[in-house]
Specification:
The complex is a heterodimer. Chain A is α+β, with helices and mostly antiparallel strands. Helix content of chain A is 23%, strand content 27%. In chain A, strand 13 and strand 14 form a beta hairpin. Helices cover 25% and strands 44% of the residues of chain B. At the A-B interface, strand 12, helix 6, helix 8 and helix 9 of A face helix 2, helix 3 and strand 8 of B.
């Protein structure tokens, strides 16, 4: 056991989470090795962001800077964005098109598969200086991730041990990706926000259907995601990924009235918008599901909130801060009216969204409070204790236990002796 | 209207907008816009890439009124004071009945514990209509933020 990172887990079903796991810098350092360099597939980007050969963008896997690029053969490659010479950030642009990448510091140049192409003055001048004769240029290569693409979604892993992508995701997740990416997409743009809290607080948030209709009063008031809606949460067999879903207009009226009776102004029946276009759902899938928040371990959320579609990449900035990077898309065959509608429904989500601005605040006020007393525990019992299973109600936080169950496994943490 | 008078009135309109936000009089904002206004907050990153996704947008004044009502009644966000610092209104282009100009801003937020931080810097790109008696109102207000990685969240207008 690593004493520095010793975490206490009082309940074997992960219905208690040690606050220390969110705030401890030693835990954070271990996450970098065991999760983000470990046997998991991290979300990198969408293929549509790199349409042409030599297109690239920089992303982060945890907090590791990575260049995602399409080589001349059209294949996606992902390279640690760090010059092998002295460790300089190799590519300083956010995105662009380049057949090779050259370090600004000493002009070492690499191809898109990470091979070292050239070093200036490698033979020195007049037999003096330069590299030693036994310098092995071929042995130097940028660290590469293994890359896998499913339905135009690019994933990468640093580990040779990682199971195949489709096995890692599981059939329920693959089915959702099939649904969301059932036809060609069109990139609409990005949003970013910096949240002063631990990244796992956001993982919890995205696996907590119960908060949707309680924290987000706009959701509840207009019925986009009342807790009384028909919906639930599905998990992969390991509990690490979660698909929360609900169906607008499928409301249980009696449950709504009694469930919200004890809340303060969460569900306000008499509140109306002057312009309700933002609330209109235009069905575009062969089902009644109007909201899907699919969170994949470790770093991405896929979203369908009405007609607003995006991915949310979690980029770490130490134990106490992360960037949320939102990539919005529509479908390539959207009519001009549908495009306008998607852009308008952007008002619902993102850093300033009617049903999402609260998440930034919730994460920050949790982080602030648990930093004060990191020896205590979060309680996760809504939706039941014991086995981690699918739910057919939104009044559940079981997927949070699924996340922590797998987190515990992949971090190779020893369970405390007092586990019951 | 002389150039100087137009510049002065444009400046007054801009100050009326930022002062209403800084003094938490959001309900006074709609009177500064025409009914068929377009109000949007866009990231400089998306503008540079030619991508249409805004951070927030209103296609008419009712949507702006809804935003204010929602902030007051149906949203939870970080309690704060806003404080704008503006450049002068820059380089006015005029066309019949309208004028367009840019204005740079810095927007600080202060917590209820008295800690201030820079929340956003950027530029307003405004088109105003000149009405009866020379009254100016916004027809298009595009808030282009350089600070496109939003600190925490975006609630009150920029």
């Amino acid at each position: 056991m690593d004493t520095k990172t010793h975490l206490v887990w009082p309940k074997a079903d992960f219905s208690r989470i040690p606050f220390k796991a969110y705030v401890d810098p030693h835990v954070y350092a271990l996450e970098r090795e065991r999760i983000f360099r470990g046997p998991v597939w991290s979300y990198l980007a969408l293929e549509i962001e790199l349409p042409a050969p030599n297109d690239f963008k920089v992303v982060e896997v945890g907090d590791l800077p990575v260049i995602v690029t399409r080589n001349a053969a059209g294949e996606i490659s992902a390279l640690l964005n760090r010059c092998a010479h002295r460790g300089t950030l190799l590519c300083r642009a956010e995105r662009g098109n380049a057949p090779s990448h050259t370090c600004v510091y000493h002009q070492w140049r690499y191809d898109l598969d990470g091979r070292l192409l050239s070093i200036p003055f490698s033979r020195g001048i007049n037999g003096k200086g330069g590299l030693p004769p036994d310098f092995d240029r071929d042995a130097i290569r940028l660290q590469r991730m293994r890359v896998a693409v499913y339905r135009g979604v690019i994933f990468g892993t640093f580990s040779d041990e990682t199971e195949p992508l489709e096995a890692f995701l599981g059939s329920a997740v693959l089915g959702e990706l099939d649904r969301l990416f059932h036809k060609p997409i069109r990139l609409l743009g990005y949003q970013r926000q910096r949240i002063a809290g631990n990244w796992k607080l956001y993982c919890d948030n995205a696996r907590d259907p119960n908060h949707g209709g309680l924290l987000h009063m706009f959701h509840a008031t207009f019925g986009l995601s009342r807790n009384s809606l028909k919906g639930g949460a599905r998990l992969d067999p390991k509990g690490r990924h979660n698909i929360s879903y609900s169906m607008i207009g499928k409301d249980d009226v009696a449950a709504k009235e009694s469930g919200y009776a004890s809340t303060q102004k969460v569900y306000q029946a008499d509140f109306q918008l002057r312009d309700s276009a933002v609330l209109k759902y235009k069905p575009e899938y062969p089902d009644d599901v109007s909201l899907v928040v699919m969170s994949l371990f470790p770093n991405v959320v896929f979203q369908q909130i009405m007609n607003s579609l995006c991915t949310r990449q979690i980029r770490l900035r130490g134990a106490g801060e992360f960037e949320l990077y939102w990539t919005y898309f529509g479908y390539a065959d959207d009519s001009p009216e549908m495009l306008e509608h998607r852009l308008l429904q952007g008002n619902l989500v993102g850093p300033g969204g009617y049903v999402s601005m609260e998440d930034g605040e919730a994460v920050e006020i949790v982080h602030r409070a648990i930093s004060i007393q990191p020896g205590a525990f979060a309680i996760v019992e809504i939706g039941g204790k014991g086995p981690i299973l699918d739910s057919d109600t939104l009044v559940t936080e079981v997927p949070i236990r699924g996340f922590w169950s797998y987190y515990h496994e992949v971090m190779e943490l020893d369970r405390s002796e007092d586990a019951s | 209207m002389t150039d100087l008078e137009l510049w002065f009135r444009f400046q007054q309109l801009q100050l009326a907008y930022t002062q209403a936000i800084d003094e938490d009089r959001l309900e006074d904002l709609p009177a500064l816009f025409v009914e068929n206004c377009e109000y949007s907050i866009v990231s400089r990153e998306n503008v540079a890439l030619g991508l249409p996704m805004p951070l927030f947008r209103c296609g008419n004044l009712d949507m702006l009124r809804d935003r204010i009502v929602s902030l007051r009644n149906a949203n939870i966000f970080n309690p704060h004071y806003s404080r704008h610092v503006l450049s002068p209104v820059q380089a006015i282009d005029t066309s019949p009945g309208e004028a367009r100009a840019a204005t740079s801003f810095s927007l600080y937020q202060t917590t209820m514990a008295g800690l201030s931080s820079l929340f956003s810097v950027g530029c307003y790109d405004d088109t105003v209509v000149v009405g009866d008696g020379g009254r100016l109102r916004f027809r298009i207000k595009t808030v282009r933020v350089d600070t496109f990685s939003i600190p925490n969240l975006l609630s009150t207008p920029i």
